[in-house]
Amino acid sequence: MMRARMIGDDLAELAVEDGGAAQAVADLLRESGSFEEIVPTMRKVAVQFDPLSIEAEDVLTLLTNAKRNAVEGASGEAKTLVVPVHYGGKDGPDIELVAASAGLSVAEFIELHGAREYPVEMMGFTPGFAYLGGLDDRVTAGRLETPRPHVPAGSVGTIKGFSCIYALAGPGGWPIIGRTDFPLFDLDKEDPFRLVPGMKIRFEAAQ
């Protein structure tokens, strides 16, 4: 795997194993106070720094050490949250399209979707939007040709390779297979969004 490297005069990046590792490394780097910007993604952490304040070699050392310390500080298996989903109907208008892309009936797809755990790989493109890796390879549906201007909060979507959860209402182009009432956002908390990289999600059909 690629080690830490410079990608500009004031930019560097570090490859990591997954979104959880990226978040752990980013948290450690923030504690150092050495960087102007730190951006964790699905497989990398990018940093911006002031080259007048810190040498590039020292930046690479900080990145490498943070990765090692994040691995050493990992506390076993990530917690799995069970998220109930109202599949299909008005809550999941695209479930037939998604099931058909996998050659499955809707009932078979619901069983498939709930049969595995999904790691939260990263957050974006809107606040609280969680990218969940590990979707079965048989599901090949892509983004909608025409994005929706409004997707309700709690909506669960899929595209090839990923599921997602919309923590907040907003526009979106992912096929929507269902919706959850699981509390994903609480403005009264210091960290208002429930999902963060490194967590695992398991879906189950709501009763």
From TrEMBL:
Source domain of life: Bacteria
GO molecular function annotation: ATP binding; hydrolase activity
Keywords: ATP-binding, Hydrolase, Nucleotide-binding
Keyword Nucleotide-binding: yes
SMART domains reported for this sequence: AHS1 (SM00796)
InterPro entries: CT_C_D (IPR003833), Cyclophilin-like_dom_sf (IPR029000), PxpB (IPR010016)
Record keyword Transmembrane helix present: no
Occurrences of domain Carboxyltransferase (ranges): 2-195
Name of the protein in its database record: Allophanate hydrolase subunit 1
Annotated source species: Parvularcula marina
